[in-house]
Amino acid sequence: MNKPVILTGLRANGELHLGNYLGGMLPMVQLQAKYAGEYQVNMFVPDLHSFTTPIDHGKLYLQIVQNLKLFVAAGLDISNDDTYIYRQSYVPMHSELTWILDCFTYFGELSRMTEFKDKASRLGHESISVGLYNYPALMAADILLYAAKYVPVGDDQRQHIELTRDIALRMNNKFNKDLFVVPAEWTEQVAFAERDAGVRIKSLRNPTKKMSKSIDDPAGTILLTDAPEAAVKKIMGAETDSLGVIHYDIEAQPGISNLLQILALLINEPLSRVADTWDGKTAYSDLKKAVANEVKVFLHDFQTKLAAVNEADLLRKLEASEFLMRDVAGQRLYKIQQAVGLRP
Length: 344
Ligand code: TYM
Description:
Radius of gyration: 20 Å
CATH topology of the largest domain: Rossmann fold
Strand order of the largest sheet: 3-2-1-4
CATH class of the largest domain: Alpha Beta
CATH architecture of the largest domain: 3-Layer(aba) Sandwich
Distance between the termini: 25 Å
Strand content: 5-15%
Number of helices: 13
Bound molecules: ligand 1
CATH superfamily of the largest domain: HUPs
């Protein structure tokens, strides 16, 4: 278990959508295919993050297992020996490390997190939980506990990766320069995942806002469980603009740029190349049809794989991984406890 680590997590509150797939799952399965053998691959469900916003707790447990199946449907090879899948709450060291990190994280830092500020302004400060405010520290613990260097995530998580780096550097400075492996800088993360830039898929109905599971926006969001034909309708109805010429420009043409980004990721080509191919064309409907077709093929394939996931294999892998991760995380936590003076 001495290989460098690639790690990512996807929360289980509600159904996952195309943004989750393109921003978090796809880079992870591509990196696994490219680097397994050379790197350890940790893909986990941050289940303690699930109730930072209100959810139906009665459904959570099954949703968590469902999320793990989605990883397999997305292409994660769980038969690979360097790959681990686990639920955060089954490795209690995450919570303990969070408290320690909390004490080296500043109120101002967490207050500046855009994800927090966005949700707080929507829900109101009086009714949002301290958990929502504090979850970037839990996310930092998720990453630092396994010494992960690369953390493939969508652009909305960039600030959290930067915060994780800041906490790790601060504690390394104070205690021991080798205490934490500091995750790579954002630009290096993006380059490692072979992307032109951080990925942020937008709502199809409101392309200045990200596609999100916490906003009620069914026409703007493609769920991984959507019937392919329903998804085609959503793409064909995507909000664009009246300029009449295709050009990749997030500010002036957010809807068109979003479609180009979705297309590039689904056909696995650089965004710059796809943008060049379509640049100057005038038939928006042709672009929509091309995207709709790729989305349809993708969903069909994804859902076929989902139906074929072998649950017994999945649960076996899950339990074996959790057993091992408790050991790995326990050893690292002990070193951190020693560094801060809690252990001899
Ligand atoms: P979460 O569960 O909200 O999202 C899971 C992944 O999906 C990405 N994502 C998007 N990417 C592109 N466009 C979008 N519209 C879009 N919406 C979501 C997210 O960037 C993420 O990669 N805090 C994390 C979960 C987490 C985690 C971790 C991730 C907890 N601990 C440790 C990595 C490492 C979150 O809330 O993601």
